[in-house]
From TrEMBL:
<feature type="domain" description="AMP-dependent synthetase/ligase">
    <location>
        <begin position="10"/>
        <end position="377"/>
    </location>
</feature>
<dbReference type="InterPro" id="IPR000873">
    <property type="entry name" value="AMP-dep_synth/lig_dom"/>
</dbReference>
<dbReference type="Pfam" id="PF00501">
    <property type="entry name" value="AMP-binding"/>
</dbReference>
<dbReference type="Pfam" id="PF13193">
    <property type="entry name" value="AMP-binding_C"/>
</dbReference>
<dbReference type="InterPro" id="IPR042099">
    <property type="entry name" value="ANL_N_sf"/>
</dbReference>
<feature type="domain" description="AMP-binding enzyme C-terminal">
    <location>
        <begin position="435"/>
        <end position="511"/>
    </location>
</feature>
<dbReference type="InterPro" id="IPR045851">
    <property type="entry name" value="AMP-bd_C_sf"/>
</dbReference>
<dbReference type="InterPro" id="IPR025110">
    <property type="entry name" value="AMP-bd_C"/>
</dbReference>
<protein>
    <submittedName>
        <fullName>AMP-binding protein</fullName>
    </submittedName>
</protein>
Amino acid sequence: MSDLLSLLSEHALRCPWQPALICGTEQITYGELEDYSSRLALYLDGKCRHTKNPIVVYGHKHPFMAVCFLACAKAGRPFCPVDTSIPAPQLQMILDNTAPPVVFAVEALPASCQCHFVLPLEQIRLLLKETRISSREVSLLTSALKPSRQEDLFYILFQAEENGIPRGVEITADCLDRSLDPFVYTQQETGTEQEVLSGSRSAVVLNQTPFSFPLSAANFYAALARCDTLWCLDRKTQTDPELLACSLRCSRASVFVGTPSFAEACLDLADFCQETLPDLKHFHFCGELLENKTVQKLYARFPAARIYNTYGHGETTSAVTQICITPELARTAGPLPCGSPRSGTFAEIWDSSGNPVEEGRKGEIVILGDTVSPGYYKNSFLTKESFFTCIRDGREINGYRTGDLGYLLDGVLFCCGRIDLQVKLHGYQVELEDIERNLLRLPQISRAAVLPKVRNHKVSNLYAWVVCPDKHISDKTYTSRLKEDLLSFLPEHLIPKKFIFVKQLPVNGSGRLDRQALEHMVS
């Protein structure tokens, strides 16, 4: 049995009354999570005994999604979490690709989607009520099932691609269990932190990203493994400042796990501070580059906090590096470090020919180790393009070419952004995210995004979208002042030609900067 399933069974015995997930008015305890998932697993075993096709779980942060996930794992069936934010055509592609024997529709499927058999939430609830056997009998019957273990597929995360065709990252039970080790068992430096993060004292963990987020293991599964309470912020709450402020106050959260873009949205709230949220003392960032200015603003609001930067991909199951960003470190020139690799993981920097480069030189970040996915579901072409196996320390392990630009210093990984965000401008190789970091060096700019303007298949100039909270003069005058200030640390050819002033930058369903939305504005 997966270590995660064993831990959850222990939590249900030790503290069955403790809430496992809370989302709005819906919540579920660890006791209910164990009992409901076991009953649903028995149903699955009878219904799907003759197929090992994945089960699709469709919804948005409802606690019963966790019931469905664990039921699949207990019945030895891989599952595919799919958030309601995914467009209907892409959802249909996932359904066609996986051919699920059943879809757990915790929320209603789009009317245009066709699949073999759908079990909506109302029928799931009814099914659990009609299982008229005791919890003890359910436990005995469940023990006879063959749950997901070792190299079995545990879940498949489908990620939307620019071409509209989703690709599914395969995560095995072993990959998930190993990825949880640092979050569950690592002893931290201080007593309070050790209690909160090692599981001896339960925490309330803010859940920002959908359960289908590529790095969900660092938040969703890690919190459940630690017997924490996940306080889920749904899409409506995150986009309404009043609802968000109210939910944060009610949560009594002690741990924030999310993207820097979401932290910036929270920092727009006057009540997002230590006085209003006295328990919130741990910030863990993933999914995007963490900027110095964001960390500095957080320390100004939460002086007692500890802020961690991490690095990982859905293809590596979870974050594979971690480092505490101190106030002193946040004042140094960026990019901020991402930390050293966890035990069992190697981070290397390769050139375009696949050869390791010397320390300090930039190249593609390559992650190797025991949490790296075996590949993409039913897509051997993309798997061969990004994944490989090699020998390290006398054993064969999986490797993944991330497509990120970075370098290593004294074993510490630094990420500089995406390689595909490098462009040629007037003969110069330009890193767009490096320009964004330089824009943020100006005190008047709180957020920034830079995109190329392309004419006739060639980059003609750069556009910058900036958030300037204290701007009180015309766009033309303010742009001139910004360009003049930028000349002190950027060459003229790297200064964006056009500045577009916005109140906030667009984010996608995962809480990341939505560059595609900005691209539509450019075109």
